[in-house]
Design goal:
heterodimer; A: alpha+beta; D-Maltodextrin-Binding Protein, domain 2; Dipeptide-binding Protein, domain 1; 7-stranded mixed β-sheet; 5-stranded mixed β-sheet; 20 strands; globular; disordered N terminus; B: MetI-like fold; 2 domains; disordered C terminus
Chain lengths: 532, 320
């Protein structure tokens, strides 16, 4: 079902919508249809009103939190815009998750996918003028294996690297301990840094990348300023001369700052403000989800060892209501780990895990469970999940399951999750579901066959994930996705609830804001401002 | 006098030492592991253990405390686990904005509260008094974060005359800084100001009912002179105590106002550091705040002497 909409979504924004957007906005109609909440219709994009990008100008962007580090290898929500502006990756994944050249102009993946040889673009320089060489790539790949760097996703991949060879300044060969057909996901996330800078005495005040913008100034907790990299390897880009990123910790204030013109563009718009901003004529983009909300069941809890009990809970999750009531209708309800656009998504299998309290009660009867008392540890930093806990509590009560809701603050929740020593259920968000499906099982803890916080270690599951990892052709993968999806629902040790979509908004004169890379980065290269 | 001040300053040392120790222990008792927050959500248990080792968090808490204390004595507050920046540097960049906001708020509160409090006290239960007491109930009852949001809506969105959020330094750009200061300073001052008005009123009513006031009036001194010279001077003592406490609170407790107005102050750093279990930064901020409170108390005590010569801290008291 998603093919046609996919095609629409992937059309360049300049072709879509065209001048119609301005008319719609004037007429008070919403240029973005995000209220549906089901299917794909919340992904419609706002196109630019005229074709030709304007060069120059400055853009002021509001972000909910400041960057924590100038290090391009530190990943995480708050770093996304900064890292992608100041640094480059070796390859860039397009919307089809196919690698496109970035710092590497070509590459060759070995037939058995156990090594890759990349050829670097010629004449790329860091902001300080130093030329990019294969040594920088080797350094970065080896560096991110260290967990202290703070990039667990990169470390997970880097641990599989057995060696990095640099036969000459422009050639790098990376060898892995196993077949890694999804290596491009790693390369998409790996921003190349300069050793002398990150290990130097000024690492906390100076940034040195090869990206389209250079860091001009950082005033912690206030703002940072990015200026156009005049020596950027792509002569055409970026369009903007300057980007000022202001920290706006209060989401309501941030929206007012957009409306009053203090900010030109914002990210992380509160979901309950989306409709109002659309009505006011602002450009609003619901971005593709990179993850979902989930509930994990600790299978070592005696109450939850029987998969039928876990299935019963899975059937008692009212996903539609979660999206409608706690996400203002923004998000796709799904019991499968994937965004609906993922090649691994299967609508039919998804539908088999419908909200059905009668079925849930029947499963409990089958398992010989009359009444049950369970804990739910809901991540205190995730308001939608905290609200949903009450909905689930009421639904479970109607089938004889008492749910005791705990909302620990984030550090405590993180500890419970990482040590997997909680009782009953745990809810939180996960990411990395938009990469190659195989990567989810490496990058996202709830699905990791070895370190998931459900203490689940089913042999069939581990074997299937292994099989997916090594599968190198699409047909084989398709077939494994189906079996994995079915197994995930059958075992129900982790229960996705709905996708987690980020909303971005901007003034009508800003074009291109709302594009995100698969690695989550906010792509500023092609953002431009229509001064007229 | 000098000896008294030195004596009082010397008393800070055990206070700071004891509070640091307590804070350190309490922080480490709180659930949550900085290593797991640094390593990231999806980090493996081995990775977390490695981070814990590298940050020195696997050592006994007492050893960590002594290590930290040794650093403090040489002026090193340690580094943030989160971003490797020196804790002292992180804290110092926030002191300016916090002082700027707290002092402006106190100034607003004092300039408005003391005249209004006096005016109300001059004729208790009169029209002015009733008006003042009724109106001051509002800011006490309305949470200041709500006032802040309404202020943003009215002045930033509808009128467009003040920015909704942000900060500029008073020393770099006073004009710009004042614009950013107005809304948060008033929001922060609102309830404190109302409390201060009532406090001032009560103290004044009490002072004005004293015998010496009657004597002063009988001598034929002008009404204003009676109120300001004789009444206010005596009423100020409890008011100054109150001001000291308020300033202490404003320096440490503007967390919500800081977040609403994107103000880069200490309160936000403290909350973030607590959420990140960034122990050394939290420790540094709390140390600073304890020192602040102690210092404000000392200043308040010294100001008493200036207001009322009877409690001036001369040599005799210190020697005793």
């Amino acid at each position: 079902m998603s093919t046609r909409l996919d095609a629409l979504r992937r059309m360049p924004r300049t072709i879509m919508a065209g001048g119609a957007v301005a008319v719609l906005a004037l007429a008070g109609c919403s240029p973005v249809d995000s209220a549906g909440g089901t299917g794909d219709d919340n992904q419609t994009e706002v196109g630019s009103s005229s074709g030709e990008p304007v060069r120059g100008g400055s853009l002021t962007i509001g972000r909910p939190a400041d960057i924590v580090s100038l290090d391009g290898n530190v990943l995480g929500e708050v770093q996304l815009l900064y890292a992608d502006a100041v640094y480059n990756t070796l390859v860039e994944l397009d919307d089809e998750l196919q690698p496109q050249p970035e710092l590497a102009e070509s590459w060759e993946l070995a037939d058995d996918a156990t090594s890759i040889t990349l050829t670097l673009r010629n004449g790329v320089t860091f902001h300080d003028g130093k030329e990019l060489t294969s040594a920088d790539v080797k350094y970065t790949v080896e560096r991110v294996a260290d967990p202290v760097v703070g990039a667990p996703q990169l470390a997970a991949f880097a641990k599989l690297v057995t060696g990095v060879e640099t036969p000459d300044d422009r050639t790098v060969t990376i060898a892995f301990s196993r077949a890694l057909p999804n290596i491009f996901d790693f390369l998409e996330m790996l921003y190349i840094v300069d050793q002398a800078t990150v290990e130097g005495p000024d690492a906390t005040t100076v940034a040195n990348g090869t990206g389209p913008f250079a860091l001009a100034e950082w005033q912690p907790e206030r703002s940072y300023t990015l200026t156009r990299n005049e020596d950027y390897w792509d002569d055409e880009l970026p369009y903007l001369d300057e980007v000022v990123v202001q920290v706006a910790p209060d989401p309501q204030t941030m929206v007012v700052q957009l409306e009053s013109g203090e900010l030109d563009a914002v990210s992380n718009v509160p979901l309950n403000e989306v409709a109002r901003l659309e009505d006011g004529g602002w450009k609003v983009t619901v971005t593709d989800p990179a993850g979902s909300y989930y509930i994990a069941a600790n299978v070592s809890d005696p109450a939850l060892t029987d998969p039928r009990v876990r299935q019963a809970i899975n059937h008692a999750i009212d996903r539609e209501r979660f999206v409608e009531q706690t996400l203002s209708g923004i998000g796709d309800p799904t019991a499968l780990p994937w965004p609906l656009t993922s090649p691994a998504y299967d609508e039919e299998i998804d539908a088999s895990m419908a909200y059905d309290l009668d079925e849930a009660r029947r499963l409990l009867d089958d398992a010989g469970v009359d009444s049950l008392s369970l804990d739910l540890w809901s991540n205190g930093g995730q308001a939608p999940l905290v609200d949903f806990a009450q909905i689930l509590q009421a639904d479970l009560a109607s089938i004889g399951v008492e749910l005791n809701v705990e909302t620990p603050e984030v550090p405590r929740w993180r500890e419970l999750s990482q040590q997997a020593n909680y009782t009953g259920l745990l809810s939180g968000p996960y990411g990395s579901s938009n990469f190659s499906p195989a990567s989810l099982f490496l990058l996202s803890r709830p699905f990791n066959p070895e370190t998931n916080q459900s203490n689940y270690a089913g042999e069939a599951y581990t074997a299937l994930v292994e099989e997916l990892w090594s599968a190198t052709d699409d047909a084989a993968r398709e077939e494994i996705y189906g079996r994995l999806n079915e197994l995930l629902l059958e075992e129900s040790f982790v229960m996705p609830i709905a996708t987690n979509n980020l909303v971005m908004a901007s003034d009508a004169t800003v074009h291109g804001w709302g594009e995100r890379r698969p690695n989550g980065g906010f792509d500023l290269r092609e953002v431009w401002v229509d001064e007229g | 006098m000098t000896r008294y001040v030195i004596g009082r300053l010397a008393q800070f040392v055990p206070v700071l030492l004891l509070s640091s120790f307590l804070i350190f222990m309490i922080l480490h008792l709180a659930p949550g592991d900085p290593a797991s927050l640094v390593a990231g959500e999806d980090a493996s248990p081995e990775a977390i253990a490695q981070v814990r080792r590298e940050l020195g968090l696997d050592r006994p808490v007492v050893v960590q405390f002594i290590d930290w204390l040794g650093g403090v004595l040489t002026g090193d507050l340690g580094t943030s686990y989160v971003n490797g920046q020196p804790a002292a540097e992180l804290i110092m960049t926030r002191v300016g904005p916090t002082l700027q906001l707290a002092l402006t708020s106190i100034l607003i509160a004092v300039v408005i509260a003391i005249p209004l409090g006096c005016l109300a006290a001059m004729r208790p239960n009169g029209v002015v008094d009733r008006l003042v007491t009724t109106l001051t109930a509002l800011p006490i009852a309305i949470p200041n974060f709500w006032l802040a949001i309404i202020g943003i809506l009215v002045f930033a969105l509808y009128l467009g005359i003040l920015p909704a959020g942000g900060y500029a330094s008073l020393t770099d750009n006073p004009g710009e800084a004042a614009k950013y200061l107005i809304l948060p300073a008033f929001a922060l001052a609102s309830d404190q100001m109302a409390i201060l008005i009532r406090y001032c009123r009560t103290a004044m009513i009490e002072a004005l009912s004293e015998d010496y006031i009657r004597t002063a009036v009988a001598k034929g001194i002008s009404r204003v002179r009676v109120v300001v010279r004789h009444g206010l001077r005596n009423a100020l003592i409890p008011v100054v105590t109150m001001l000291g406490i308020m300033l202490g609170h404003m320096l440490s407790g503007a967390v919500i106002i800081e977040a609403i107005f994107a103000w880069p102050g200490l309160g936000r750093l403290l909350v973030q550091s607590i959420l990140n279990r960034d122990y050394l930064v939290v420790q540094g901020i709390l140390l600073l705040m304890v020192a602040w409170f102690a210092l404000i108390n000392l200043i308040v005590d010294l100001v008493y002497g200036g207001i009322d010569p009877r409690i001036r801290l001369g040599r005799r008291e210190v020697a005793a």
